[in-house]
Write a structure and sequence with these properties.
single chain, alpha+beta, Aminopeptidase
């Protein structure tokens, strides 16, 4: 895993767009409807470059043998003074061509380790209820906090519930 800067995001926006579009096409609920146009996915990543450069988003990318990103995970750091002890885990994505090989678990572990090293003591996330990602988080020691019905549309446009999870770090 490599920690990527805002420059990385700008330079690799087209490749990151391909990963995002593949993730959505594969049915993962990561905030977009299918089909996701490549140009829209690239624009979304370019919008994230500034926040990544400013440190509001920490991004890690997993690369294949050609240097193409095949997985990402991010931590979003809140800007409120009373929230500096926590971060939100977002956009854990694995390209369909490499799923089932433990990459999601490695990305998750990378984000957790980096968060703990940065003094973060609490992580939280939301994920589509019943999704494969939900199994990953439970098996990695995340605690279910509750479910919200009709929280977001799936890539197919169907309203789906989301489950909230948290994990305490370092003690």
């Amino acid at each position: 895993m490599e920690r990527w800067t805002g420059t990385h995001v700008r330079v690799h926006a087209e490749e990151l767009a391909e990963l995002l579009a593949d993730t959505v096409a594969g049915g993962a609920s990561v905030g977009f409807l299918a089909p996701l146009a490549h140009a829209d996915a690239a624009a979304w990543w370019r919008e994230r470059a500034e926040a990544t450069a400013a440190g509001r988003i920490a991004l890690w990318a997993a690369l294949d043998d050609t240097g193409r990103p095949v997985g990402t995970v991010s931590l979003v750091h809140p800007d409120k003074p009373n929230s500096r002890h926590r971060a939100e885990l977002v956009k854990l994505m694995v390209h369909r061509s490499v799923r089932g090989q433990g990459l999601g678990r490695r990305l998750l572990g990378t984000a957790e380790t980096a968060a703990a090293a940065a003094g973060i003591t609490l992580l939280h996330l939301d994920t589509e209820t019943g999704s494969p990602a939900e199994h990953l988080y439970r098996s990695a020691g995340w605690t279910r906090a509750g479910t919200i019905p009709d929280y977001a549309a799936s890539p197919a446009g169907e309203l789906r519930p989301t489950t909230l999870y948290y994990k305490r770090l370092g003690g």
